[in-house]
Every structure is written in C-alpha cells, then in structure tokens.
C-alpha cells in the first residue's frame, strides 16, 4: 500500500514535470543513465551548448533566412521549432535535452533518403523501444504480483511506460542511422558519410558506443550493469573505444612500418572538420627523434580548393581510414637496437587551420590533440 501511494505521488510529479521537459520524468527512475546523458554529445548538440556547431551555423547561408534546418538531427526534441510554431531560441530544451531520451527511444523506423535519412517516430504515448537479448521480440507492460497476502509486491516492466523489445533497429544500430548515416548539401554533394560496412564484425553502433557499465538501469529494478549513455568521443569514451584500434609495428632493413587496424564498422573521422593523425617519436640515447606526422583527412572543396560544407561540390583528398581497414604507413628511418618507438594515434576535433578561421581555437577543447591510442615498441 505504502509503495503504491509513493508510486502515485511519483507519477503525479512526473507527469507534471513532463509538460516542461521530456527527460525530467525519465530522470526520476533512471538517475544514473540521466547523469551520464548530461555529459553526452546528445545533450549538447544545440548551438547553445556546442561552440563548434554554433561557429559553423553562424557562417551558414541558411542563418540569414532564419532556416535552422539542422534541427531534425541536432535538436529534434524542440518540437515547436520542428513544427514551425517557434523560432530558434535558447529555451530549456535547447540547453538541456536537444536530443532527448525519447528522440532515441521512440524511433520506430528510419527512412532512407539521398539528402539525409529521416527518423520516423512512433505516435504511441509512453511507449519505449529498447534492446534486451533475452526479451527480444517481446512487448512488456507493467505487472505487479502480490505475495504473502499482499505484504510483498513484485513488479515487472516499468510502471510508467510500455517497453517494446521487438524493434530490430535497436539491436543492429539502425536506430542511430536516421541522424548518423550521411548528409548532402544543397548541391547534392555528400558532405559527410560514415560509410558503414558491417563485414564480419559482430559489433554494432550500440555495443561499441554504449557498452555495459556498472550501475543499475532503474531505481525500481536493481541490475548490475546498464548501457552507457555518456555517448561522445571527446570525454570518457576514447578510453572505451581505443580497444577497437590496434597498432602494430614491423621493422625492415631500411626502416619500419606501422599498421593501424580499424575495427570500427565505419570510416574513422569522416567529418570535414576533424583531423586524424599518426605521430611517431624514436627515443634514442635519451634523445627524441620526431618523425613526420601522417594525417588522415577528408578535405572537401570547390575548384580544387578547400571550401565550407555548403559551398563544396567535390572531394579534394580523402585519406580517411575506412571501415574495417588496416592502413600501413611506411617510415624510412632505420631502427637501431636500444631504440624505443613511441606511437600516438589521435585527432583534433577541429583541424587547427579551420579552428582559427571559425574562431574556436581558444577556450574550447577544439584545438587539443586527443590521443585515442598510444603504444611503445622497444628494440
Ligand atoms: C516510474 C519509473 C519510471 C519512469 C518515470 C521511467 N521509467 Fe523507464 N523503466 C523503469 C523500470 C522499472 C524499468 C525496468 C523494467 C524491466 O526491465 O522490468 C524501465 C525500463 C526502461 C527501458 C528499457 C530497459 C531495458 O530492459 O532495455 C528504457 C529504454 C527506459 N526505461 C526508458 C525510459 C525513458 C526514456 C523514460 C522517460 C520518458 C522512462 N524510462 C521513464 C521505470 C521508469
Ligand atoms: C542528417 C542529420 C544532420 C543534419 C541535418 C545536420 N547535422 Fe550536424 N551533425 C550530425 C551528426 C550525426 C553529427 C555528429 C557526427 C560526428 O561527429 O561524426 C554532427 C556534427 C556536426 C558538427 C561537428 C560538431 C562538433 O562538435 O564537432 C557540426 C559543426 C555540425 N554538425 C554542423 C551542422 C550544421 C550547421 C547543420 C545545419 C546547417 C547540421 N550540422 C545539420 C547530423 C546532422
Ligand atoms: C536525433 C539524431 C541522433 C540520433 C538518433 C543519434 N545521434 Fe549521435 N549525435 C547526433 C548529433 C547531432 C551529434 C553531434 C552533437 C554535437 O557535437 O553537436 C551526435 C554525436 C554523437 C557522437 C559523438 C560524436 C562526436 O563527434 O562527438 C557519437 C559517438 C554518437 N552520436 C553515437 C550515436 C549512437 C551510437 C547512436 C544510436 C544509439 C546515436 N548517436 C543516435 C545525433 C543523433
Ligand atoms: C543516442 C540515443 C539514446 C539516447 C539519447 C538515450 N538512449 Fe537509452 N538507450 C539507447 C539504446 C540504443 C539502448 C539499448 C542499449 C542496450 O541495451 O544495449 C538504450 C538503453 C537504455 C536503457 C536500458 C539499459 C540497459 O542496460 O538495458 C534505459 C533504461 C535507457 N536507455 C534510458 C534512457 C534514458 C532515461 C535516457 C535519457 C536520459 C536515454 N536512455 C537516452 C539509446 C539512447
Ligand atoms: C567496433 C566498434 C565500433 C562500431 C561497431 C561503431 N563504432 Fe563508431 N567509433 C568507433 C571508434 C574506435 C571511433 C573513433 C574513436 C573516437 O572517435 O574516439 C568511433 C567514432 C565514432 C564517431 C565520431 C566520428 C567523428 O568524426 O568524430 C561517431 C559519430 C560514431 N563512431 C558513430 C557510430 C555509429 C552511428 C555506429 C553504427 C553504424 C558506430 N559508430 C559503430 C568504434 C565503433
């Protein structure tokens, strides 16, 4: 009885809050996941939270027309903006939940289009899609069973929402592809493409980017682990993801080679702003010999010159490492015995040259070299 009253009070407050922000209701029962989400790229994808997105938007020709057509991917939860009832403004949704819990958990299917894909959201209320291998195919409503003449009540499912475990898009990662697949500009030129190739890999977007970590998934259901929701590569995630990048070295008579094995099922850093690099230093007799840095980039532009994404109509160079590819880089410095070779594989969120142009080169992490994988080889 006590429990039911508590639940009713909780639900009443939850429904009240829901009028304001979608996530506040989820937060009451999923506090750990909510906390992770707060640090994720998905809670900061608006121009008010992401200085890089803002810098690009500020220069975008659509801004003059007040046509924030980035919304369908960057701020789908600002429903008034999406429906045209309101203009872009720094409201609570833009600031805290531009891509809310529901923006991911209510994707019923993904429509494929040449320009960019489209999320089709379910119109069922309090209806959540999720992934659980043991419950695959099932649809679960809340059930409460009483034991010992009602003294003990055990509930299964969620008292707030139904859960549909039958949507395959939540197992194979397709639910991410409404936003993450590709994007063309007004000239039908593909500005950005993850070029997903599943190959032999058993991993999916979800298993790599949302691995199981410690902590319960809901207050009412004590689980040992839950799927990590702090999705975003620039904070904690490099440590988690680095295991999918393997570095190895082979010595030759006149030099050596470094192999980078990309186990991700997509191109690494295909975004035009990113700059991915391999850096090698030989430590010899307590001296550092710094070798040439190798860059892996996709430069887009026009008439053979780099240009902003809305101007570009062609690829100038593309040396990005593709899905499941092993890239071998040759060096012609001979290795001596006693050498220690330090290899760093990492990236800039924004290519330092572009960062300067966009004015995001100070005060943000945009201009820092982030190490994804580091390895030392001794001879
Ligand atoms: C009153 C508490 C409550 C509220 C509010 C609530 N949930 Fe839940 N939710 C639960 C419980 C309990 C479970 C675990 C059900 C089970 O596994 O038996 C659950 C399960 C889930 C699952 C699936 C877990 C799995 O097994 O894969 C997802 C996804 C989810 N909730 C998302 C949300 C979202 C999004 C919101 C906000 C719109 C929300 N929940 C609001 C209690 C709640
Ligand atoms: C089809 C969905 C989609 C649309 C439409 C879209 N974006 Fe994005 N954008 C994404 C995704 C997904 C990412 C993250 C991808 C990644 O990091 O590889 C992203 C990332 C970015 C980034 C990099 C952010 C960072 O912090 O590094 C910028 C800048 C950006 N978008 C600008 C824009 C602008 C400006 C518009 C509108 C004119 C726009 N995008 C429209 C999906 C979209
Ligand atoms: C509603 C659109 C949408 C959906 C659905 C979505 N994302 Fe995102 N995602 C974005 C946008 C937009 C960004 C870029 C935010 C920014 O930095 O401005 C992003 C950022 C990311 C990043 C960080 C990239 C970076 O450069 O920091 C990762 C990793 C990511 N998403 C993975 C996923 C995965 C995995 C899924 C599916 C479980 C998913 N996303 C579903 C829109 C979406
Ligand atoms: C980027 C898309 C995305 C966002 C945003 C998102 N989720 Fe999830 N969530 C997923 C996916 C995909 C899964 C399935 C992961 C799995 O079980 O392997 C999942 C799983 C869950 C689960 C079950 C965890 C488990 O271990 O089974 C809960 C509960 C949940 N989400 C709640 C939330 C809440 C609450 C929010 C908002 C604070 C939220 N999600 C935001 C994509 C998202
Ligand atoms: C085998 C593991 C693996 C799988 C599967 C995988 N990724 Fe990744 N992903 C990575 C690694 C490794 C990186 C690069 C590490 C980093 O950026 O810190 C990455 C980077 C990213 C980025 C950032 C790219 C950028 O330019 O900033 C996004 C966005 C992303 N993945 C989305 C996805 C989506 C969507 C899927 C499903 C189609 C997916 N990933 C599948 C391992 C994986």
Number of helices: 14
Percentage beta strand: 25-35%
Biggest sheet statistics: 5 strands, antiparallel
Helix-residue proportion: 10-25%
Low-confidence stretches: 8-19
Average pLDDT value? Answer: 91
Shape, per Cα inertia axes: globular
Radius of gyration, in angstroms, nearest whole number: 24 Å
Bound molecules: heme C
Distance between the termini: 71 Å
- Number of domains as seen in the coordinates: 2
Structural class by helix and strand composition: alpha+beta
Number of separate strands: 22
Describe this structure in words.
- With 379 residues, this protein is α+β, with helices and mostly antiparallel strands.
- The protein folds into two domains: 2-227, no CATH class; 237-378, Immunoglobulins (Immunoglobulin-like, Sandwich), CATH 2.60.40.10.
- Helices cover 23% and strands 29% of the residues.
- It contains 14 helices and 22 strands.
- The protein has helices at residues 2-18, 22-29, 31-38, 51-59, 61-64, 71-74, 79-82, 92-96, 101-105, 169-172, 177-180, 205-209, 237-241, 352-358; strands at 107-111, 118-121, 127-129, 139-140, 143-147, 152-156, 162-164, 182-184, 190-193, 212-214, 225-227, 245-252, 255-262, 275-284, 287-290, 294-296, 298-302, 305-306, 314-318, 326-331, 340-348, 369-378.
- Strands 14, 15, 16, 21 and 22 form a five-stranded antiparallel beta sheet that branches. A three-stranded mixed beta sheet has the order 3-7-4, with no helix packed on it.
- A hairpin with a 2-residue loop joins strand 17 (298-302) and strand 18 (305-306).
- Helix 1 runs antiparallel to helix 2 (22-29) and helix 2 packs across helix 3.
- The longest helix is centred in the N-terminal third of the chain and has 17 residues, at 2-18.
- Residues 8-19 have low confidence and may be disordered.
- It binds heme C (5 copies).
- Residues 173, 176, 180, 194, 196, 201, 203-205, 208-209, 233, 237-238, 241, 244-245, 263-266, 268-271, 274, 372 line the site of one heme C.
